[in-house]
Structures are given as structure tokens and as C-alpha cells.
């Protein structure tokens, strides 16, 4: 099977997976009580009206009295045409809310991801090359410190030192700073630093251990015997095979921290990103926005898995598509 | 429901909290500033020389706004954000006098018919023209009084007959006369252009009205607010620029200082959820104002770059005790239903230590359903001061508890230091608290300790989320029904009073310090929502008054003079102090920091009423 066919099949599978998830969300949604119906009934009760009548009227207005298959078709069409409804909690279309959140999240998560992917394996490789020396311990200690200290706490401490006491950075994020400006870089320095220190630990440890396996491999001995430079030996003969198993870990981990860790950092630094959009929607029981966020992250996960598989095959030519 | 739940509350129904510059605050009837706080300081409204216009004012807020659509907003924070760009009808000044903004209103028949007189020269943005009586009457009749729009004010205007009587004048005829009607805020309306909402009225399209961009983005506000909203960045806050045409600059009967107001070129409200960051921004000089948590207030009082203010407010700290059938899970019967037992609880908690320990002294003790600054607060000789002096301590609490045991059909008693059940086990109760508020856990733990020390009850604090508490514990499906023993019928049950004591929430609970409630010091009549008999709209705890509360509220509604109202409410509050429907603990002050040198803030319930005149 060729690469193109493999990709086509993987993409088709991704579509099927997303369809299954969309269907499941519909089932859950249909089974849950609709808050707007409850709200209408409460409002009617407060005004001395008939709550039952108000609830019926609201159901009719929202199309909830339609047969379930009609509602399902409407729902699926809406999802795939990006008509994700209105966010009651933010008074804007769901797609706008997610887009705005992504706009701010991307500003710190892109540098965070790049730095993590660059620094994690490099520090791991450095540790492996100097295994059990003080350099290894220092690098490991640094990685573990970042991993162990809670992002939330670390962020507040750094904010206090650099924002309030020394006044090098603003205490909270200003959305009016242009994206590509020194002001924006300065105000994002602390969030990115906190996130990078929090996420390179695991990657560094995995890459250290993986690298260690290849340090004394036959092909490394051959390379050294041929007079290959140290840099080239590490970069081509150690780092590359190390990245193969690591790529699986990295994509999964980054997807997880993309949402979880970013929420806490967004709360501390006042960044109106995707983490806060989603969390606030959950707290406010903003069904449309929660659903939109779920679909968005589903899409990210499906695409992430796809990319992961493709990267896997490209990085290691020994992996074939035949059994897939 | 706006403004019902307040201090200590964790979910979004909070009403005005005096610390926010544009919050309207205030009370009626005040004749001096002694009650409602200090009206000294602030700005000199009659200064000859006007301040220069310039700079930016940055306000911090802790939560995002759900909507800025004036017709649908029910949040205090969003109300402030709207208020920077769009005035409402009136406010109350530092002397608690009604201060007309868009309109004045008065009654000449003892509160039955109220006349609204709109200022001339109020203009919407193009193409909507002048604000007139027709736009207000249309808004009230076609939106608030409709059965489809469900606006935030819809329950306020039910049964009120509104009539246009001139281009700039209309009147409202109430079902029952109400002398303190302005103080209920019911007549407080935003101006909304008729032409803007008419298409939605014709279609009965509430979604369209709710989602209209001109309403949400406040694009119609013309000269009607001190600032013009430039941008609402969801999640980040709002940005405004000065409104050069603000109508109060030319208005008659307003202090001279308004003639060039406002005095900041720019204004912004920045949303930062983390308290440490907000306080840090104030400390670093990046914000001009922020709330300060009690444990850091003393530190800021020493900070020369920040001016600190303690501002009285009407939301209380209470210990709610569940008198319904799923309360009192220690054993048979429910001792919370017995007045003397609630008094015993009140006597077991030292209010002064509570305030010192939880609020570092920045609160007032709470004895009856009014703060002491209220003009309706009864004399202290008339009410029992549970929790201080002779009415605090183990001995007095145990005596009252013993009285309650004697009235119970079950054999509760003291065994040594412990209060025990008929089975001989120590009474164990839970107390729910919200861990996200700065003081929630402290309040619960102090209460638990006092009830253990003074009444021998083992109290177990339990943390709970605010929404979960509200949905599963505090409210229930309205069922209605009868309580034959009490001779009561629930014809109009609500989620907050779903029926007799046999109708309960999904989860059982004993005590809670999660929510505090409003005490409405400007207009105590509004407290009928809590205490107008056992069947009143808001009674989650299942309290049955043992005095004629309904009769007193009815008397107050038909009262013809301020003095009569005063006497009725004083009687009401004496009875409530006696019965402790909720165990009353404290009124915490709002603790607010402003950048040093800001002229305007006052330690008064009405702080912020004149925000357009604030300046450096």
C-alpha cells in the first residue's frame, strides 16, 4: 500500500471517528434537560404564569418538539457546516468564541510547543551524553523542578517577583498589544517560561533514557570509527531514533497539556484563551459552547493522531503501511 | 432575582456591591450620612475650577460578562460595564437622596401613581433620535410586560399600568401604593430605542432581541453615558473612550463638577479571575482600583501608593439551618424548627471573635435583618443581641437548647459536655461551605468550633461547589402542597420555596455558610421575598414565621407615611431578631483599594454614584 492510500484511509477513519463522537454528543444532549426550558418555566413561575405552558412554548421555539430524527439531521448538518449556535455565556456565536480563545492561546502555546520540542530532547540528549555526571544531575534536577512545581503556584510566584516587585513585566495580559511586538513578547515571557519548564521534564527523561540506548549501539561505534563529528553523531545517529518512540509521547502529552495546563496559566495571567473559554462555559453550563469546545478538541485529537502516525512512518522508514 | 444573593455567595446572582465605582448604591429615606457611611471626602462637587480631562482609569473585575444587552443583563459586574456607557433613570447620592439622571419621578397620591419626567436633550445615536416617553412606555408594555421577551425586568412590571402623558412624561399606576417604590429599583430603566426593538416585537423574537449586536455592543447610546463603549473583548473586558457630549454636562440641577465630566479620556474594565493577580496589578500601579482580600487589607493600609476604603454593604453572613425534612440528620425530629434552638445556635457563636478572626475586624455584627447603618434598624434596646455580651457563651446557649429539648417530642439532652440524641450518641451535623471564597472555610471552621465548644455538637465542615450547592441543596423542583398542621397551602411554589417542609432538595444537608443574602436597607419592603409568610417566594430553609410577618408586610404596603412604614419595619425586625430564621453573623465591609490621589471614592453605601466626576 502506498503512502497516499494510507493517508486517504487514515483521513476517512478520522471522519468516521468524528461522526461517531458527534452522534454520541447528540445522544447525551438529547437526554439532558434543556436549561432554557427550565429558565422559561422559572421565569413564568416568578411572574405568576403557568410554568408548564411556558416550558412547552420554549420547547416549541427551540424545536425540541420535533421528532428526534429530524433534530438529529439538523444537528449533524449544523455541526459540519460550522453552525454551532449561540454562546449564551458570552453572547456571541460559538465559533467566534472558540476562534477568539484560540487566537490568544496560540500566542503562547506555539512558542511553548516549539521550545518544549526543542529543549526537551536536547536536554535529554545532553544528560545522556553526560550520564551520571554533575551536568546530568543538574539537567535532571532542572527538569524535575519544572515538572514538580505546580504551574499555578510557580506562575504566581514569578508574577510577584517580576511583575509586582521588579516591574519587568505587566502583571496581567493586555489584549491590545500587537501580536508581533516587543510588548507582547515581554508579557508572554512568563507564561511561556512556566509552561515550558512544566512540560519539558517528561520529554527530557524519556529522551534521556532512549538516547542512552543508542549511545553505545553498534552504529554509533561505527560512526565514531569513521570519524564522524560528535555533533553529527548525536544529531543523526542518536537523536533521530530517539524521536521515533518520543513522537508518540509528545503528541499525546502536548494535546493533554494544551488544554489542562493552559487553563491555570490563563487564569493567573488573565489571558482570555481557549482554556478559560472552555472552563467558563462548563461552569456556566453553556451547552452550545461546551459542545463546540468538545468538537474542537475532538478534531484536534483526531488530527493529532493522524499526524502522529504519519510522522511515525516518515521518521522510521522500517515501518511499512502494509498491515494498516 | 437580581441582588438576592450576595456576600459569601458563589454563583452569579450577586447584586450591587458598593465597591464598584459605577454600582448604584443607596437607600432611601436617609436624612444624614450617619447611617449609610461617610459622605465626607470624595470630590468637591461645587468647585469653581474644573479638573483637567486626561489619563485612563482601569478597573479590575473577577468574572467575564454574560451579556451587555441592557434588556437581559442580571449581573452586577456587567451592570457596571453597561453603566459606564449608558445611564439609568436615577441614582442615590451620598445623602441617600434620589438623584435624577435620565428622569425624575415622584408621587402625589401616597405612592399609587408615579410620574416620570424625562430630561430634555437626551439623544440616542443616529438614526434613533431623541429619548422620549414613548420609547420608555413601549419598552415596558411591549417587552417587560409581554409573555415572550423574558427580559430581566419582566417580573418587576407585572400588574403595573403604564401610560404616556406627554412627549417627555409618563406615569405608572401600581396595584398597591408603595411609598418606597424608587428604592426597589423597579422604576430604574435603561433607555432603549423603540425603532431598534420594534422588529423583534412584531416577530415576538426573543432570541433575536437577546442577540442583537447593537444592544450587546451598546452602539445606540448617543449622549446617554459618560463614556462610549469601543470594544467588548469577551473574556478580557471592556474599553471605553470619553463621551464628549455627555448629557449631564448641560443638564439643569446637577452640581457644577458635572459640567465637563467625565474627566478620564479612557476607561477600561479588565477581567482577571485570579485574585492575587488583581491585587498585584493594584500594587504595581497597573490598575486604579481592585477589591482587597481581608488578610491583605492591613498591608495595603500601610502602602502609600494605595488609598484604602471600607465600604458598608447590605449582604450578610448567615448560618443557614435546614428546617425541611431533609435537614437535621443527627437523629429524629428537627430541632432547627424550634425557635429557642436557633437562638441557642446564635448564642453559641461569638460575633466579635468571628469578625476579628475571619474579617480582621472589617465587618459589623449582624443581629437583625438590617445592617446597623440602615434607617430601619431598630434600637439596640429592643432586640436581643445574640452572640455578644451576656447573650454569648456556653451557659446561655445550653439553657436555650434545653428549652428546645423540652419542646421536642424526642429525648435530646446533654450528657456531660456533649449534646446527645435519644439514642445517646453525640449530635453530629454537617456544615457546607464554598472553598473558592477567601473566607468560606474560615467561617465554617470557626462556626464548627464554637458549636462544639458551647453546645457540644460535633460539626463537620464540608466543601462544596457553588453551582452544585445551588442546584442540589438550596433549590428543589416546585411541588406545592399543604402543611395541615400549620394550616398553610403553597399555591405558587418556586425552586427556592418548593412547598411545605416535606418538599425537599435532592440532597440532604444540615447547615450552610455558602450563601449570604441581601437585606435591602433602602427598601426593607423587598425583604418580603424572604419573610412574607412561610409560603413566600424565597424560603429554601423552610422557615415558618411565628409572628404575623405577612400582616406586617401588608401594613407596610398600605402605609401612608414614612413614619408609619418606619414603625412597621422596626416591629418586623425586632421579631426577626428574636426568631433568627437564619442565624445572623456579620455584615462584612467591601474592602477596596484605589490608586493614591484619586478624588471621588467615599466610605458610603452610595460610593460611585458620581463616578463621572472622579479625577486625579
User: What amount of the residues of chain A lies in strands?
Assistant: under 5%
Computed CA radius of gyration of chain B, to the nearest angstrom: 25 Å
**Number of distinct beta strands of chain A:** 2
What is the number of helices of chain A?
A: 12
Instruction: Please state the overall shape of chain A, judged from the principal axes of the Cα atoms.
Output: flat
Helix amount of chain B: 10-25%
Poorly predicted runs of chain B: 6-34
Oligomer: heterodimer
Biggest interchain interface, per-side counts: A-B, 44 and 43 residues
General description of the model:
The complex is a heterodimer of chains A (324) and B (616). Chain A has helices spanning 3-31, 35-46, 51-61, 68-80, 94-129, 134-148, 151-165, 182-215, 218-225, 230-269, 274-283, 287-315, and strands at residues 86-87, 92-93. Chain A has 324 residues and is an all-alpha fold. Chain A has twelve helices and two strands. Chain A has a two-stranded antiparallel sheet. Chain B has 15 helices and 23 strands.
Show the helix and strand layout:
The complex is a heterodimer of chains A (324) and B (616).
Chain A: H1 3-31, H2 35-46, H3 51-61, H4 68-80, E1 86-87, E2 92-93, H5 94-129, H6 134-148, H7 151-165, H8 182-215, H9 218-225, H10 230-269, H11 274-283, H12 287-315
Antiparallel strand pairs in A: 1-2
Chain B: E1 56-61, H1 76-83, E2 90-92, E3 98-100, E4 103-107, E5 113-118, H2 133-144, E6 161-166, E7 169-173, H3 194-203, H4 206-211, H5 213-216, E8 227-233, E9 237-242, E10 266-271, H6 275-283, E11 289-291, H7 294-301, E12 306-311, E13 317-321, H8 339-348, H9 351-359, E14 363-365, H10 394-407, E15 413-415, E16 418-420, E17 428-433, H11 440-455, E18 458-463, H12 466-474, E19 481-483, E20 488-490, E21 511-512, H13 528-531, H14 549-558, H15 562-579, E22 583-588, E23 590-595
Parallel strand pairs in B: 1-10, 17-18, 17-21
Antiparallel strand pairs in B: 2-3, 4-5, 5-7, 6-7, 8-9, 9-10, 11-23, 12-23, 13-21, 13-22, 14-22, 15-16, 19-20
Helix pairs in contact in B: 8-10, 14-15
Amino acid at each position: 500500500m502506498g503512502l497516499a492510500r494510507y493517508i486517504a484511509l487514515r483521513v476517512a477513519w478520522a471522519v468516521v471517528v468524528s461522526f461517531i463522537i458527534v452522534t454520541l454528543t447528540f445522544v447525551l444532549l438529547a437526554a439532558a434537560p434543556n436549561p432554557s426550558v427550565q429558565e422559561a418555566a422559572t421565569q413564568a413561575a416568578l411572574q405568576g404564569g403557568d410554568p408548564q405552558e411556558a416550558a412547552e412554548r420554549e420547547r416549541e421555539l427551540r424545536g425540541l418538539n420535533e421528532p428526534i430524527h429530524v433534530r438529529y439531521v439538523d444537528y449533524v448538518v449544523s455541526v459540519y457546516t460550522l453552525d454551532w449556535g449561540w454562546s449564551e455565556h458570552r453572547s456571541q456565536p460559538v465559533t467566534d468564541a472558540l476562534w477568539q480563545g484560540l487566537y490568544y492561546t496560540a500566542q503562547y502555546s506555539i512558542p511553548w510547543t516549539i521550545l518544549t520540542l526543542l529543549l526537551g530532547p536536547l536536554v535529554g540528549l545532553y544528560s545522556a551524553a553526560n550520564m551520571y555526571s554533575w551536568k546530568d544531575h543538574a539537567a535532571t534536577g532542572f527538569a524535575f523542578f519544572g515538572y514538580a512545581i505546580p504551574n499555578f503556584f510557580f506562575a504566581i510566584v514569578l508574577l510577584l517577583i517580576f511583575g509586582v516587585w521588579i516591574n519587568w513585566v505587566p502583571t496581567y495580559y493586555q489584549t491590545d498589544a500587537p501580536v508581533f511586538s516587543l510588548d507582547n513578547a515581554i508579557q508572554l515571557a512568563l507564561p511561556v517560561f512556566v509552561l515550558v519548564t512544566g512540560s519539558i521534564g517528561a520529554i527530557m527523561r524519556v529522551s534521556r533514557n532512549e538516547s542512552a540506548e543508542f549511545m553505545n549501539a553498534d552504529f554509533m561505534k561505527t560512526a565514531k570509527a569513521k570519524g564522524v563529528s560528535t555533533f553529527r553523531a548525536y544529531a543523526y545517529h542518536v537523536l533521530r531514533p530517539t524521536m521515533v518512540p518520543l513522537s508518540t509521547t509528545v503528541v499525546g502529552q502536548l494535546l493533554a497539556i494544551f488544554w489542562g495546563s493552559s487553563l491555570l496559566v490563563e487564569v493567573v495571567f488573565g489571558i482570555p484563551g481557549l482554556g478559560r473559554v472552555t472552563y467558563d462555559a462548563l461552569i456556566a453550563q453553556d451547552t452550545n459552547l461546551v459542545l463546540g469546545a468538545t468538537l474542537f478538541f475532538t478534531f484536534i485529537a483526531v488530527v493529532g493522531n493522524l499526524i502522529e502516525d504519519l510522522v511515525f512512518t516518515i521518521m522510521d522508514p522500517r515501518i511499512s503501511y502494509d498491515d494498516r | 432575582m437580581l441582588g438576592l444573593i450576595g456576600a459569601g455567595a458563589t454563583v452569579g446572582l450577586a447584586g450591587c456591591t458598593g465597591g464598584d465605582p459605577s454600582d448604584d448604591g443607596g437607600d432611601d429615606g436617609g436624612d444624614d450620612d450617619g447611617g449609610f457611611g461617610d459622605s465626607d471626602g470624595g470630590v468637591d462637587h461645587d468647585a469653581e475650577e474644573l479638573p483637567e480631562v486626561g489619563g485612563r482609569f482601569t478597573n479590575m473585575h473577577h468574572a467575564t460578562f454574560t451579556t451587555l444587552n441592557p434588556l437581559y443583563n442580571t449581573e452586577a459586574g456587567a451592570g457596571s460595564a453597561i453603566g459606564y456607557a449608558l445611564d439609568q433613570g436615577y441614582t442615590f447620592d451620598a445623602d441617600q437622596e434620589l438623584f435624577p439622571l435620565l428622569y425624575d419621578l415622584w408621587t402625589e397620591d401616597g405612592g399609587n401613581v408615579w410620574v416620570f419626567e424625562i430630561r430634555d436633550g437626551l439623544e440616542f445615536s443616529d438614526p434613533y433620535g431623541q429619548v422620549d416617553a414613548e420609547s420608555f412606555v413601549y419598552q415596558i408594555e411591549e417587552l417587560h410586560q409581554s409573555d415572550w421577551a423574558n427580559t430581566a425586568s419582566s417580573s418587576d412590571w407585572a400588574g403595573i399600568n403604564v401610560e404616556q402623558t406627554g412627549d417627555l412624561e409618563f406615569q405608572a399606576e401600581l396595584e398597591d401604593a408603595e411609598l418606597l417604590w424608587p428604592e426597589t429599583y423597579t422604576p430604574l430603566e435603561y433607555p432603549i430605542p423603540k425603532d431598534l426593538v420594534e422588529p423583534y416585537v412584531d416577530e415576538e423574537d426573543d432570541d433575536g432581541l437577546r442577540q442583537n449586536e447593537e444592544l450587546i455592543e451598546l452602539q445606540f447610546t448617543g449622549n446617554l453615558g459618560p463614556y462610549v463603549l469601543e470594544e467588548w473583548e469577551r473574556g478580557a473586558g471592556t474599553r471605553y473612550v470619553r463621551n464628549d457630549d455627555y448629557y449631564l454636562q448641560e443638564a439643569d440641577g446637577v452640581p457644577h463638577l458635572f459640567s465637563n465630566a467625565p474627566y478620564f479620556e479612557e476607561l477600561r474594565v479588565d477581567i482577571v479571575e485570579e485574585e492575587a493577580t488583581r491585587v498585584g496589578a493594584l500594587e504595581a500601579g497597573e490598575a486604579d482600583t481592585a477589591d482587597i482580600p481581608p488578610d491583605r487589607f492591613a498591608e495595603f493600609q500601610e502602602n502609600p501608593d494605595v488609598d484604602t476604603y471600607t465600604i458598608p454593604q447590605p449582604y450578610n453572613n448567615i448560618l443557614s439551618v435546614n428546617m425541611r425534612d431533609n435537614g437535621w440528620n443527627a437523629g429524629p425530629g428537627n430541632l432547627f424548627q424550634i425557635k429557642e434552638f436557633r437562638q441557642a445556635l446564635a448564642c453559641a457563636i461569638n460575633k466579635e471573635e468571628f469578625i476579628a478572626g475571619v474579617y480582621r475586624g472589617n465587618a459589623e455584627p449582624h443581629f437583625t435583618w438590617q445592617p446597623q447603618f440602615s434607617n430601619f434598624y431598630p434600637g439596640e434596646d429592643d432586640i436581643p443581641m445574640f452572640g455578644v455580651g451576656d447573650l454569648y457563651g456556653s451557659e446561655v446557649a445550653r439553657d436555650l437548647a434545653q428549652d428546645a429539648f423540652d419542646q421536642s417530642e424526642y429525648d435530646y439532652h446533654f450528657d456531660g459536655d456533649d449534646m446527645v440524641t435519644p439514642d445517646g450518641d453525640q449530635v453530629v451535623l454537617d456544615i457546607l461551605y464554598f472553598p473558592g471564597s477567601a473566607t468560606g472555610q474560615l467561617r465554617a471552621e470557626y462556626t464548627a468550633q464554637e458549636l462544639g465548644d458551647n453546645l457540644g455538637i460535633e460539626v463537620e465542615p464540608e466543601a462544596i461547589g457553588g453551582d452544585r450547592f445551588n442546584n442540589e441543596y438550596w433549590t428543589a423542583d416546585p411541588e406545592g402542597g399543604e402543611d395541615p398542621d400549620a394550616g398553610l397551602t403553597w399555591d405558587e411554589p418556586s425552586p427556592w420555596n418548593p412547598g411545605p417542609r416535606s418538599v425537599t432538595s435532592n440532597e440532604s444537608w444540615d447547615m450552610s455558610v455558602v450563601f449570604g443574602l441581601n437585606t435591602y436597607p433602602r427598601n426593607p419592603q423587598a425583604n418580603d421575598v424572604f419573610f412574607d409568610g412561610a409560603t413566600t417566594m424565597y424560603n429554601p430553609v423552610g422557615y415558618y414565621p411565628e409572628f404575623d410577618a405577612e400582616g406586617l408586610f401588608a401594613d407596610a404596603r398600605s402605609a401612608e407615611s414614612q413614619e408609619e412604614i418606619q414603625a412597621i419595619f422596626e416591629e418586623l425586625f425586632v421579631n426577626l431578631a428574636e426568631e433568627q430564621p437564619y442565624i445572623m453573623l456579620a455584615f462584612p465591609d467591601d474592602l477596596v483599594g484605589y490608586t493614591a490621589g484619586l478624588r471621588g471614592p467615599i466610605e458610603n453605601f452610595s460610593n460611585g454614584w458620581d463616578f463621572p466626576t472622579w479625577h486625579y
